[in-house]
Amino acid sequence: MAITVGQVLDALIAPVGKREDTVDTLKNGNPEEEVRGVAVVFLATYEVIGRAIASGANLIITHEPTYYNHLDETDWLSGDPVYERKRALIESSGVAVFRLHDYIHQYKPDGIVDGMLRALDWEAYADPDKTLMLTLPEDGGRTVRSIADEIKRKLGIDSVMVAGDPELAVTRFGFAVGAPGGRSQMAYLRERDIELLIAGETNEWETNEYVRDAADMGMNKAMIILGHQKSEELGMRTVVKLLRDAFPGLPVDHLELPTALRRI
Amino acid sequence: MAITVGQVLDALIAPVGKREDTVDTLKNGNPEEEVRGVAVVFLATYEVIGRAIASGANLIITHEPTYYNHLDETDWLSGDPVYERKRALIESSGVAVFRLHDYIHQYKPDGIVDGMLRALDWEAYADPDKTLMLTLPEDGGRTVRSIADEIKRKLGIDSVMVAGDPELAVTRFGFAVGAPGGRSQMAYLRERDIELLIAGETNEWETNEYVRDAADMGMNKAMIILGHQKSEELGMRTVVKLLRDAFPGLPVDHLELPTALRRI
């Protein structure tokens, strides 16, 4: 029996319930369309859209925006050659593109965080009541550097950025994926008894400088910055599992991205 | 004859004229106070405030905020141990702290950009009518990588982040210091005939992804990201020169900062 775009989206929305105040909308496509395959991505780049289409998928579930701004506003991009070519690819192929950002962060537990904890094999560290708080075994002898090394190995990152002392001992830490904003990141460090915040993306003049000052004051505070993509991408495996469970037989694949930047 | 804080600030404001709609305010101190020495910094960190005071300065001119947010709002930080200790240092020492952000960017030419072009020895590349546009000599054979290498050497940076192809040939490029926002950065790349944008700080889901897509479409576009601090810090030498010229005999020094982050 045919599965429609609308049915797949309903399955993704069901854990939260329909919301109106959300950026999670269909950027292209038709809810009545039959789905032949689903590509799950961190961000629908031009390159991965092509890969998804070539794989036979006609529905892309993307965590981050398609058109270079949080609201996917496009008026300001009218006539822009990059935007126009990307839109032409999407429209001419007929691929449906749905953003799944707000809903998945509202799953209980947060679907991105849960997926990242699984990818890092850190479920045992998590406090079930506070999923962004992680407590290490007492006898761990862990440091900021050893945690950074573990993340690099498990997520395939060649280096991370650190504020504070890499040799600082860590017993409890927080994991704030994505870019929740400086005040949210600083609240983590302030309100919870943690030595380390693992962050996705920051504004340099906000959390970075707060941690720099705290460390220079001799406080036991540090931060590891993974980059936005690496802090969330494997969290989208939660979507793959959900859809494979809901629609056995429907091809659903996670297409991973290279990072947008390289260090030279 | 005594020079007051107010007189120094008037000299910094004079090239633009007094504005009300600005973040450039006195965060601590008294305009009537006599100035014994001026410390010019990119950002008034806890550590550099201590260095400034130890050097005998009692006026700090800082380009970026003191309290971890653009407007230097402090209500949300009340009781925060990092904020309270930084504020106590500033208040107990009596050091005056003035932010010079909006005014210096409104100098003609932009004082930060002008200072950066001097630090990079790039004044000859600049279009006098468009100071953020730079044109290389025709026979240069320059690439993104060779420009990145030149910047690293001249600014003392060990690595930069690049979107697009490092081997892309570059004849014209733009230099957007600081964090002017994604739409402004993308407008540079769209509206001007440049291959390369040198940026300070970006949001990952905005300009980074625009350049990634453009490069994947085969367009001749690339971006080098310096980090906010490294893209502006030496631009504050403009302030040092202005104040030394205006107040001969007054000690005025630029105190440079280490970066807040290190790569491990």
From TrEMBL, chains A, B:
Gene3D superfamilies: NIF3 (NGG1p interacting factor 3)-like (3.40.1390.30)
Alphabetized InterPro entries for the sequence: DUF34/NIF3, DUF34/NIF3_sf
Keyword Nucleotide-binding: no
This protein's UniProt keywords: Metal-binding
Any one Pfam family match given in the protein's UniProt record, by short name: DUF34_NIF3
Family: Belongs to the GTP cyclohydrolase I type 2/NIF3 family.
Record protein name field: GTP cyclohydrolase 1 type 2 homolog
Origin species: Cohnella hashimotonis
